[in-house]
Amino acid sequence: MTLDRLPLLASGKVRDIYDLDDRLLLVASDRVSTYDVVHPNTIPGKGAVLTGVSAFWFDKTAHIVPNHVVSYTDGVPDEARGRGVVVRKLQMLPIEAIVRGHITGSGWKDYQATGKVSGVELPAGLLESQELPVPIFTPSTKAELGLHDEAIDFARAAELLNDVAPDGDGDALATKVREAAIALYKFGHEHARSRGVILADTKFEFGLDPETGQLILGDEALTPDSSRYWPADEFEVGTTPPSFDKQYVRDWAVASGWDKTPPAPEIPAEVVKGTQERYAEAYERITGESLSSWLERTAPAR
């Protein structure tokens, strides 16, 4: 079995989704996007990092909320090993579950303007990157490819969930999503700190089991693409700390003068190399092993 023989259901900014009848095959590519636009060249090894980091977290957090993973080897074509995972089919929810433990990024901009983030009022006088008293749930919409997600408050999230929630109770489902997302963030934050890394914020995607209605964690988990990780020894309140995610590419994109509309420019070789190194270091810091160990475990039998 090869990828070109499987029905391609969707191709997103990063992942390709293939139909396996009663299952799906998700393959993380090496594509990279900034400001919701995909760049023409790739970051080699990025797909393996995303899949390997997700595998680590899915395993570690299954006691908090079940996830969609079936196998990283069985049913995964050889050319996708290390980047692919067979998963359960879910009814995916129409919101992204974002949790912020530090005030940074777009949340920092919103706080400066209104004192709130997604309707959540925060204490006055916070500094950029400061840790919040408690993590906050700041959901967003899911935009189509090339468009931007929209930050929403809890009430709007509940409204969007009404159509998919069991018994039409979007408020109850939104509450479950918020509780699960915050519990996952807290677990990830504690582990990351033990590895010398700060998990500033992250995004989860959830779905429902079509038969039971159970809430299931899908997509990816606590990866450098869905999360903002900072080295703890370089963290300083009032600054924008260096990060292990694609912020390195974003910073270059801003400095390049690109207006953030398609088409995205090609990324220079030195920026590709620097980003590649940051992704690999993120994998090693978080999991405690080298990326090559993950690739060896998922490699085809010889």
UniProtKB/TrEMBL annotation:
Instruction: Reply yes or no: does the keyword Ligase apply.
Output: yes
Q: Please name the top-level EC class of this enzyme.
A: ligase
GO MF: ATP binding; phosphoribosylaminoimidazolesuccinocarboxamide synthase activity
One cellular component (GO) term of this entry: cytoplasm
**InterPro entries registered for this protein in UniProt:** SAICAR_synt/ADE2_N, SAICAR_synth, SAICAR_synthetase_CS
Q: In which pathway does it act?
A: Purine metabolism; IMP biosynthesis via de novo pathway; 5-amino-1-(5-phospho-D-ribosyl)imidazole-4-carboxamide from 5-amino-1-(5-phospho-D-ribosyl)imidazole-4-carboxylate: step 1/2
* Protein EC: 6.3.2.6
Catalytic activity, reaction form: 5-amino-1-(5-phospho-D-ribosyl)imidazole-4-carboxylate + L-aspartate + ATP = (2S)-2-[5-amino-1-(5-phospho-beta-D-ribosyl)imidazole-4-carboxamido]succinate + ADP + phosphate + 2 H(+)
GO biological process, alphabetically ordered: 'de novo' IMP biosynthetic process
Q: Which UniProt keywords apply?
A: ATP-binding, Ligase, Nucleotide-binding, Purine biosynthesis
All copies of domain SAICAR synthetase/ADE2 N-terminal, residue ranges: 9-263
Pfam families of this UniProt entry?
SAICAR_synt
Q: Does the keyword Ligase apply?
A: yes
Task: Read off the HAMAP family from this record.
Answer: SAICAR_synth
What family does the Swiss-Prot or TrEMBL record give for this protein? Belongs to the SAICAR synthetase family.
Q: What is this protein called?
A: Phosphoribosylaminoimidazole-succinocarboxamide synthase
Which taxonomic lineage is given here? Bacteria, Bacillati, Actinomycetota, Thermoleophilia, Solirubrobacterales
